[in-house]
Write a structure and sequence with these properties.
single chain, about 450 residues, alpha/beta, TIM Barrel, Lyase, Ornithine Decarboxylase, Chain A, domain 1, eight-stranded parallel β-barrel, 20 strands
């Protein structure tokens, strides 16, 4: 990780500009789009990036976490805006490289890495990693030795406590993520590395999906204090302090990105007190984001396959379900989903002639096409009168949509993925899965 990367200067220029107005959560539907289809708007990605950069302290680096949406077009535009890539699997590494991200701009993370994963990343030129344990440090050191290279790593930390306002707390309990802060403090010699892999920084990610600015500031402030304590315990210069993120975003419902107008000033004060060399990149400060950068860029389009009455309730069957959105519902991470009515082909939600979209009816059970009763988005959705063939949309699905779902379950085709920019379709493709012979 180089402290003089020119993208740092471009990020600072972006942050100097005032935050733009929020981009609409849903854009126009490309004519003739088959369903199911995810539509990603690159203009919304740029808008979200500008907003987030304007609320981060400078100088700082921003990583894009590919787990939110690894589509190459999305990754590419964020890299051109100055984001480095944070990946945690061979598939995400391949997506970043396909998108044009150089290996020198990739951070390879994850609590468990196979030897072949490390070998593939090293062969591709990746030299920056995050590790979570003493074993992980030794594993990386041995892998780097086999390749005849030297690499740096960020030591991920699991501090005590938690963060209020978090959608999901990442640390403070027994966890695969990170080494316990107390053990690092008491036994720093265990964590500084070997001949081929040496510690270059700390990686903290306390919580995610925090929409309240004060709560987010508390979480990042806690991370800064932990970093200060461990920096002193390690007793050697560190190049990077990665404070993670936690930036919230609406998911699969109407809504705008939260605003954090006072965050940069608050973080600057924390950093000046705890890490006084940070303004001179000693150490450099980094943040990560996935959902904030991409959530509002996406919408999922789906058509009604069937409408019927069952035991006194209206049941609506769609051509998509938990195989394409909401597969993480089994992990209790997804609320009921209530799509909006777009109408028949070519009809918008405000079309005055759309009579079936204005007649109120009782709530509907909203189901997908899978042969399991688990494929249910909502048991009581306030849909108007609709008919087979009608088009619905789920807004704000640019993050944790297709790639967080059960796309292989029951073998339905993956949805189309359409990328637009300024209302123009720039790419349209579909994931396919091919069975190949084993080694």
């Amino acid at each position: 990780m180089t402290d003089t990367d020119p993208r740092t200067r471009s990020e600072a220029a972006s942050a100097a500009a005032p935050a733009p107005a929020p981009h609409p959560a849903t854009g126009p539907v490309p004519a003739g789009t088959s369903t199911p289809a995810y539509v990603y708007d690159l203009a919304a990605v740029r808008s979200a990036h500008a907003r987030l950069r304007s609320w981060l302290p400078e100088p700082s680096t921003l990583y894009y976490s590919l787990k939110a949406n690894p589509h190459p077009a999305v990754v590419s535009v964020l890299h051109r805006l100055g984001c480095r890539a944070e990946v945690s699997s061979p598939g995400e590494l391949g997506a970043a490289l396909e998108a044009g991200v150089p290996a020198s701009d990739i951070l390879y993370t994850g609590p468990g890495k196979r030897d072949e994963d490390l070998a593939g990343a090293l062969a591709a030129g990746v030299r920056d990693f995050a590790v979570d344990s003493v074993h992980g440090i030794g594993q990386l050191d041995r892998a780097a030795a086999r390749h005849g290279v030297r690499v740096g790593y960020l030591l991920r930390v699991n501090p005590g406590g938690g963060s209020r306002g978090a959608g999901l707390r990442m640390t403070g309990d027994p966890s695969a993520f990170g080494a316990d802060a107390e053990d690092i403090r008491d036994h720093p010699e265990r964590y500084t590395g070997g001949e081929h892999a040496r510690i270059e920084g700390l990686h903290l990610y306390l919580a995610t999906n925090i929409t309240d600015e004060a709560a987010l500031g508390d979480s990042l402030g806690e991370a800064i204090e932990v970093a200060r304590t461990l920096y002193e315990a390690i007793g050697r210069p560190l190049r990077t302090i990665d404070l993670g993120g936690g930036f919230g975003a609406p998911y699969a419902r109407e809504g705008e990105l939260p605003a954090y107008p006072g965050l940069a000033a608050r973080m600057t004060g924390h950093l000046d007190r705890a890490l006084p060399g940070w303004r001179q990149h000693a150490p450099a400060v980094a943040f990560e984001s996935g959902r904030y950068l991409t959530a509002t860029c996406g919408q999922l389009l789906t058509r009604v396959l069937d409408v019927k009455e069952s035991h006194g309730q209206r049941v609506v069957v769609l051509d998509t379900g938990i195989n394409h959105l909401g597969g993480m519902a089994g992990l209790r991470r997804v609320p009921p989903l209530h799509p909006d009515v777009v109408g028949p082909e070519g009809v918008g939600p405000d079309d005055a002639d759309r009579t079936t979209a204005t007649e109120p009816l009782g709530p509907a059970m909203l189901c997908g096409p899978l042969c399991t009763p688990l494929d249910t988005w909502a048991r009581s959705s306030p849909l108007p009168a609709i008919a087979p063939g009608d088009l619905l949309r789920v807004p704000n699905t640019g993050a944790y949509g297709l790639h967080a779902s059960l796309v292989l379950f029951l073998g339905h085709p993956a949805p189309l993925e359409v990328v637009t920019d300024g209302g123009r379709v720039v790419r349209s493709d579909r994931l396919t899965f091919v069975r190949s012979a084993g080694p």
